[in-house]
Automatic annotation (TrEMBL):
It comes from the Bacteria. Residues 6-121 form the Response regulatory domain. Gene3D superfamilies: 1.10.8.60, 3.40.50.2300, Homeodomain-like, P-loop containing nucleotide triphosphate hydrolases. This is DNA-binding transcriptional regulator NtrC. Member of the two-component regulatory system NtrB/NtrC, which controls expression of the nitrogen-regulated (ntr) genes in response to nitrogen limitation. Phosphorylated NtrC binds directly to DNA and stimulates the formation of open promoter-sigma54-RNA polymerase complexes. InterPro entries: AAA+_ATPase, AAA_lid_NorR, CheY-like_superfamily, Homeodomain-like_sf, HTH_Fis, P-loop_NTPase, Sig_transdc_resp-reg_receiver, Sigma_54_int. CDD domains: AAA. Keywords: Activator, ATP-binding, Cytoplasm, DNA-binding, Nitrogen fixation, Nucleotide-binding, Phosphoprotein, Repressor, Transcription, Transcription regulation, Two-component regulatory system. The modification 4-aspartylphosphate is found at D56. SUPFAM superfamilies: CheY-like, Homeodomain-like, P-loop containing nucleoside triphosphate hydrolases. The keyword Repressor applies. NCBIfam families: ntrC (TIGR01818).
Length: 472
């Protein structure tokens, strides 16, 4: 009979140690439990090496991330699962930067934890220790505890370490730019520039020179050389917002540049090579734009190496009180006004709002309230005038979507949007898929089951996301 595989569980919380060790023993593993990092390290120094370690982050003495560093220094191939109740980007990125195998958000499902351990063992290919980047000073910028946000923070922490192209999708104001900044800030490129360009905000005739630069005299009005955003971002990250609005001719040029990794400035003869990580964002359903002939399918594949869908605020209403309190305190500080507090009823009212403008709308509302609401407590009455369009919904019972759909359709019809049925159908599908994936922490199989679809169908609908080499 073979020896059971030895696992170590390190957590100062007795209850977590107990339930986790018991579940893992039930699953057939030999488990050593430690209440602090020092005891685990002492054991390691005796020459005993476990097959896998699961450690908490916050503990008296050395925390889990310090333990991770020391374990990795002694045993680079040892898989370490880091667990924490604090799932923010700084913690997840810190863990993955330190070489963590996986990040487990507390509270966790025991079956999930055991399944994670099973997937981690045996470790067939050695994992290279990632480059250590400077710690982020401001990693807590992205606020959120909803399951979809925790999953997002884990994805950011992991993706920050590899220069793959990322496509961030989500409604307006959901934090797409903030996510792009976090991916850059936590990456080994953090000391190099983060350059953002909103494709929709630049007139199409200027966009090419804005992206790739131009030489003096390249066109009327080009009096001197202009260095484009690609060059400005060399060594760092280029964030292209509203990519769905990029004119067709430029899509073709962008695709070529991404494929070849080099380009000429407009009117230039010198071949420019840059090393840029590209992050694109859109609030539009790109697959529908492809179907409608407005976006190149090959460019979509190139950008869509990894997709990060951001949930709308109304689907994570549990995050609203924390966000609102932070925005209100921040606004008061910036406006040098006394700090106010929301009443509980006001929080409930905010949670019942439909938030078409998402986090940005909430942030703007808090600035208005910081400046205008009388008294030091903000009640439902103070919100009554500011949230006129609110559609009340009780608890977690969502509002119906047919009315907003009808308003949207009328608006599109007025704008003569082509292929409206195809566009609406694709948006409907995308919204369902995004919701199901967020609900299932990104597990396609579970999402397919939840929607009553086959796994192959959901994979097909999500589109093929071929792995592409980044431009270098
Ligand atoms: N999770 C979050 N925590 C804290 N602030 C957030 C969060 N998400 C968004 N915000 C804030 O909301 C505002 C809008 O965010 P951001 O500009 O990143 O959204 P966006 O999705 O890029 O919007 P758009 O599509 O309109 O460009 C910003 O002020 C940002 O700081």
């Amino acid at each position: 009979m073979t020896e059971p595989v030895g696992l170590w569980v390190v957590d100062d919380d007795h209850a977590v140690r107990y339930v986790l060790a018991t579940a893992l023993r039930d699953a057939g593993y030999a488990v050593e439990a430690f209440s602090n990092a020092a005891d685990a390290l002492d054991m390691l120094h005796t020459g005993t090496v476990p097959a896998l370690v699961i450690t908490d982050v916050r503990m008296p003495g050395d925390g889990g991330l310090q333990l991770l560093d020391k374990l990795k220094a002694a045993q680079p191939q040892l898989p370490v699962i880091v667990m924490s109740a604090y799932t923010d980007v700084a913690s997840t990125a810190g863990a993955f930067r330190g070489g963590a195998h996986e990040f487990l958000s507390k509270p966790f499902d025991l079956d999930e934890a055991v399944a994670l351990v099973r997937r981690a063992l045996p470790q067939p290919t050695p994992v290279a220790t990632p480059v250590i980047a400077p710690a982020a000073a401001d990693g807590s910028l992205l606020v959120g505890h909803a399951p979809a946000m925790r999953a997002l923070f884990r994805a950011i922490g992991r993706l920050a370490q590899v220069p793959l192209s990322v496509l961030v999708t989500g409604e307006t104001g959901t934090g797409k730019e903030l996510v792009a900044r976090a991916l850059h800030r936590e990456s080994p490129r953090a000391t190099r520039p983060f350059v953002a360009l909103n494709t929709a905000a630049i007139p199409s005739e200027l966009l090419e020179s804005e992206l790739f630069g131009h030489e003096a005299g390249a066109f009327t009005g080009a009096s001197k050389r202009h260095i484009g955003r690609f060059e400005q971002a060399d060594g760092g990250t280029l964030f292209l917002d509203e990519i769905g609005d990029m004119p067709a001719a430029l899509q073709t040029r962008l695709l070529r540049v991404l494929a070849e990794g080099e380009f000429y400035r407009v009117g230039g003869r010198e071949l420019i090579r840059v090393d840029v990580r590209l992050i694109a964002a859109t609030h539009q359903p790109l697959e529908a734009l492809v179907d409608a002939g407005r976006f190149r399918a090959d460019l979509l594949h190139r950008l869509n190496v990894v997709r990060l869908p951001l949930p709308p605020l109304r689907e994570r209403s549990e995050d609203i009180p924390e966000l609102a309190a932070r925005f209100l305190a921040h606004a008061a500080q910036r406006l040098q006004l006394p700090v106010k507090q929301f009443s509980n009823a006001a929080f409930e009212r905010l949670q019942a709002h439909a938030w078409p403008g998402n986090v940005r709308e909430l942030e703007n509302l808090c600035w208005r309230l910081a400046a205008l609401a009388p008294g030091d407590s903000i009640g439902v009455q103070d919100l009554a005038d500011t949230l006129p369009g609110a559609v009340a919904h009780a608890g977690n019972v969502a509002v119906s979507w047919t009315q907003p759909l009808s308003t949207w359709a009328q608006q599109q019809l007025r704008q003569h949007t082509p292929e409206l049925h195809a566009l609406a159908k694709a948006q409907f599908e995308q919204a369902l898929l995004d919701a199901a994936l967020a609900h299932c922490d990104g597990h396609r199989g579970d999402a397919a089951q939840a929607l009553g679809l086959g796994r192959n169908t959901i994979t097909r609908k999500l589109g093929s996301s071929r792995k592409q080499a980044p431009i270098s």
